[in-house]
Fold:
Amino acid sequence: MKITVIGLGQMGGNMALTLQRAGFDVTGSDVFEAARRRLAEQGLATVSPDQIGASDVYLLSLPTSDHVREVIEQSPGLLGLAPKGSVIVDTSTSDPVVSRELAAKVADAGLEWLDAPVSGGPKGAATGRLGMLLGGDMATLERVMPVLEAMSAKRTHVGGPGSGHVVKLANNYLCAANLIATAEAVTLAAKAGVDPAACLSGLNSGSGRSAISEVNFPEWILSGRFDSGFTSGLMRKDLRLARDAASGLGLDLSLLQQVVAGWHADPDRPADSDDFNHITSPILAQADVDFSPSADSDEEASA
Structure:
């Protein structure tokens, strides 16, 4: 099976290398020469966008729906150059309205569509341990299942075209809300004299636990690393998409509106280029507590 990966950033580049290691015939493409060169130095065949040729699968890993639309529609777009029967798999976090529109055009052109937004970050992409939310026809999903299995540890089919992107927006909304809520809970406990790590242990033993308290806080926040590979700008974009989706459906989701406002309250704290976990920093700063791991905890961890 021949695969062309379009978009060779941290996610797309790692997915391309993972698929190549799994034995697929993979070519990568990106508008930026530096990205193509970086992947070529790691052994991946790369081409510029105007050199993209025939493939069985076109895997898109792009920042926004506008970029996805451009790759599919703008000459020489995939609608014109992809062979009949080939599959376009959009792993981006895209606007589901746009995805459904593009899926219909893809089908009219004799191609197949699957939206497959991912979670797990660059590490998951590099190790083939991503989570995938799949929207599209079951027959299409089954056709590309070997590709999906090579990339991911968990795959959930949630409905027809666009459904994967709907659920991804819902997921990222909860993630964004939980980051703020957990930071406030930990700040409350720390200000009252409870060690943050002890607070998290307590939360994780009860009903307040989440992936944020179990993974993000120890892995990226309390460690001070803030290197998850997902930026605040991308989370803000996803929250706006979730807000717009709700508005388009005539829904009044007041908490969603507050979370969107909270993430956009100060464009510099965090900056769009900062790791998205930095949204917790201004909140935690109110506790006047050193959140860095203590020497004792480091010794216990190494033991």
Summary: The longest strand covers residues 152-159. The chain has a mean pLDDT of 94. The radius of gyration is 21 Å. Residues 163-191 form the longest helix (29 residues).
